[in-house]
Amino acid sequence: MRGPRESERNRGAPMVTATGNSGASGPGSEGTPALLPSAATGRYGGPSVDLDLLQTLRSTGAARQFHPEPVGDDVLARMLDTARFAPSGGNRQGWRVIVVKDPATRVALRDLYLRGWYEYLAMGSAGLVPWAPVTDRAAEAAAIANAGPFADAGAAAPGFAETLETAPALLLVLADLTALAAVDRDLPRYTFAGGASIYPFVWSLLLAARTEGLGGVMTTMPVRQEDEVRALFGIPATVAVAALVVVGRPTAVPRRLRRAPVHSFAWVDRFEGAALAGP
Ligand SMILES: Cc1cc2nc3c(=O)[nH]c(=O)nc-3n(C[C@H](O)[C@H](O)[C@H](O)COP(=O)(O)O)c2cc1C
Fold first, then answer.
1. Centre of ligand 1 from the C-alpha of residue 11, in Å
2. SS3 state at 73
3. Cβ–ligand 1 contact at 61 (below 6 Å)
4. Which fold has domain 60-248?
5. Which pTM was predicted?
6. Biggest CA pair distance of the chain
7. I need a labelling partner for 264 at 20 to 30 A (CA). Which of 35, 47, 69, 240 fits?
């Protein structure tokens, strides 16, 4: 996978390639130990990193701890310039992005995030899959009733959520609801097809971050407080909150990702039929 500009890759520090930097890692391995540039070879905001597509797809995990330097607008613009080539239903490109810079707004967004986060933790502790469309709603309500702390962010052990406002870059990704081909809109079940026109863009954004020597994570937690997020950013009612993408220069290199094997979720001809042969 190549960064957007040939000239960028040739400027300054040496390129990092999957084969040149990570050691042997064939199709059977789940990730590579060192695809992000090391401190010596990769520079924040520096030359785009030349990455192997397969290895990048297999090793782009969530990064939640970052070196403190901000991500420049030029870097964010390059990432967005790549992500905009993501597919969307009817090529409507309904994504919208707000780069969150204002310190007070960042703190307010963190507090909104934390509310969902503590609910998430409480549901997980109760053995639930948080907010699963098909779930035990009574058990969920009971778990949420015990969630906390909500109001006093400072009282919690500071982790990714509690320090969200310090993240190098925060990109709020929105969805223009007038532009989504939500083909399951009228079904009597939970609908999700509309998101398929937005989340490939988000994933491309995270992949594009890697070409910049950066990493990050997609979070949907602010969606839980959508009305308040809308108010905070002046977002109209016809636009939904889809994700908050957090990006920066990770403090750690990608680790081996844990994912279920193909035969556990892919079948031939029938749901839970014969497993597709493969790795
Ligand atoms: C739709 C979606 C929502 C997510 N929401 C959050 C979130 O709110 N907070 C968070 O820290 N990570 C979030 N994540 C990141 C997941 O936790 C992460 O992708 C998963 O645990 C796999 O991690 P790994 O790639 O590092 O193995 C989200 C990921 C997706 C795809």
1. 33
2. helix
3. yes
4. NADH Oxidase (3.40.109)
5. 0.83
6. 58
7. 35
